[in-house]
Structures are given as structure tokens and as C-alpha cells.
Design goal:
This protein has helices spanning 67-70, 226-230, and strands spanning 8-12, 16-22, 33-39, 46-48, 50-51, 57-60, 71-75, 89-97, 105-111, 117-121, 133-142, 153-158, 161-166, 172-178, 201-209, 234-238, 243-244, 247-252, 257-264. By secondary structure, the chain is mostly beta strands. Strands 11, 12, 13, 14, 15, 16, 17, 18 and 19 form a nine-stranded mixed beta sheet that branches. The protein has a four-stranded mixed beta sheet with strand order 5-6-2-10, with no helix packed on it. Strands 4-3-8-9 form a four-stranded antiparallel beta sheet, with no helix packed on it. The N and C termini lie far apart (58 Å).
């Protein structure tokens, strides 16, 4: 801000900020999320984000080599003259949840960025179910040796909507999703007593994507980069009659759908 007598104006912006969102659309719980970043070629030197006091952003206020981009000045009441970055540098960002509601996530980011980077978060197996949401949980195991499929992608389609879960390093996955809007007609309880809402059900289609050769990222125990997880090819689901591209299951109102899935990776 300034007035007629203003002689100098200084502005500051962060070279990197992230905004976390629930991948299924549920409201993120307050607090608990943290982020660190490091130059891709220097994983030993990390920088911690500071939560914004007025928003959900996690901001990196100072990163090496970005000082010229982060500050601007002007005189005589003129608008700030923000510098154009000479180039970008690859960073890795890791988001974790100390309450263990969400799986850890790593993403690659070209710094500086001119807008917050949106990072979707996927439910961890121990996350409590939000009130009024449906639950799909299960495990992914490889056909043949029965080993867990880590960082696989499970897609659940209900009506016209599709939701995505990611398995943890032990192959376990959890998805909270809104119930489909198209409810079957309820019987007239006064005229025809029935079982009530627990009889309401919907068909859902399940697909899996996994292929260990596609995954890339930082060293363990960090997870692979999120884009490599989501970019895995379709896998077969073997329910006893050979691998299929998809299977149909039944989601019942008020009950968790449990899916032990045997998969044939691509």
C-alpha cells in the first residue's frame, strides 16, 4: 500500500506453495498435514513448509537460489515490478499426515511456480469413516505368489462418478466416497413393512492399475512419485475364472464393501 508521499514499495512472494485436497472430495480435517521439499539432486538438505494462518496453503518462504524471484520493489507509488524467472529447478515435495488419515505423497515440482501446487491425498487404511460417506476397503495381492501389490490404483465407478484409491506399501487400500445420488425407490413403510435403508444397494465397477516397472521416485521409505503411481497401466483382476479388466460388486447402504483382490499386474 502507498500514498502520494510513498518513496519505496517492497513485495515478497514464495517460490513454492502447496494446497492439499482429498482425492475423493471429502473435507480435509483440520491440521496435521506437513510438507518438506528438497532439490532433486540433494535429498539430504530439506526445507519445511510453514502453514498459512489464513488459508489451507503450506508455503515455502525461502528456497535457495530463488531470492531474486521472491522479492520485488518499486518507487514513486508505481506497481511492483516482479522479475521473470530465468529458469526452473526440479524439487521434490513430500506431504505427510501426523494423524495417519492419509498416505504420504511425493511429487516433482519445477520451482519457482506462479500458483499453489494442488496435491491430492488418498486415504490410509486406518482412517475413520466420515459421517454419511460410503466405505470401500481391501487388499491387493499378486496372482501366483500372493505378495502384496504396493502403490496400486483402485478405481471404483458408481453411476457416472469414478473414485480412486491408492494401496499402501502392504497392498492395503481404503476409499471413502459419497453414496450415489440415484437412490432406489423406498417402500412405503406404513403400507409394506420392509428392511429399511439397509436394503438399499448399488452396483459398482472395480478396476485396478499396477505395474511396478512404471513406478519411479525417491529412495524408500518415501513413496513413488504420484504421477508415476497414477500412470500405471490397467491390470487384470482374477476372481477365479481368469483375469478380467473389471469386476462388479455391490455397495450396501451403511455397510463397508470389503474387496480382497487378486491382480495380474501389467
Amino acid at each position: 500500500m502507498g500514498g502520494p508521499g510513498e518513496s519505496e514499495r517492497t513485495g515478497y512472494r514464495a517460490a513454492l506453495a502447496v494446497r492439499c485436497v482429498d482425492a475423493a472430495g471429502a473435507v480435509l480435517g483440520g491440521g496435521g498435514l506437513s510438507a518438506v521439499a528438497w532439490r532433486r539432486n540433494d535429498p539430504a538438505t530439506t526445507f519445511r513448509a510453514v502453514p498459512s494462518p489464513v488459508s489451507s496453503l503450506l508455503g515455502f518462504g525461502s528456497l535457495p537460489g530463488q531470492r531474486a524471484y521472491q522479492r520485488a520493489g518499486s518507487t514513486g507509488g508505481r506497481p511492483l515490478d516482479w522479475p521473470v524467472p530465468a529458469g526452473t529447478e526440479p524439487y521434490v515435495v513430500r506431504v505427510t499426515d501426523r494423524y495417519r488419515r492419509y498416505l504420504p505423497v511425493t511429487v516433482e515440482v519445477a520451482v519457482p511456480v506462479d500458483a499453489p501446487v494442488e496435491i491430492p491425498l488418498y486415504s490410509a487404511p486406518v482412517r475413520p469413516t466420515p459421517s454419511g460417506w460410503a466405505t470401500v476397503r481391501g487388499e491387493l495381492h499378486r496372482a501366483g505368489d500372493g505378495g502384496p501389490v504396493a502403490w496400486g490404483v483402485v478405481e471404483v465407478s458408481a453411476e457416472a462418478a469414478r473414485y480412486t484409491a491408492v494401496s499402501d506399501d502392504n497392498g492395503r487400500f481404503l476409499l471413502h466416497l459419497p453414496y450415489p445420488e440415484a437412490l432406489p425407490a423406498l417402500p412405503d413403510a406404513a403400507a409394506t413393512p420392509g428392511p429399511g435403508p439397509t436394503a438399499i444397494s448399488w452396483p459398482v465397477t472395480i478396476r485396478v492399475r499396477c505395474g511396478a516397472g512404471v513406478l519411479r521416485g525417491p529412495a524408500a521409505p518415501d513413496p513413488p512419485y504420484l504421477d508415476s503411481i497414477l500412470g500405471q497401466p490397467p491390470a487384470g483382476i482374477d476372481s477365479g475364472g481368469g483375469p478380467q479388466q473389471s469386476v462388479t460388486e455391490t455397495l450396501v447402504f451403511g455397510a463397508a464393501l470389503v474387496l480382497p483382490l487378486t491382480v495380474v499386474p501389467a
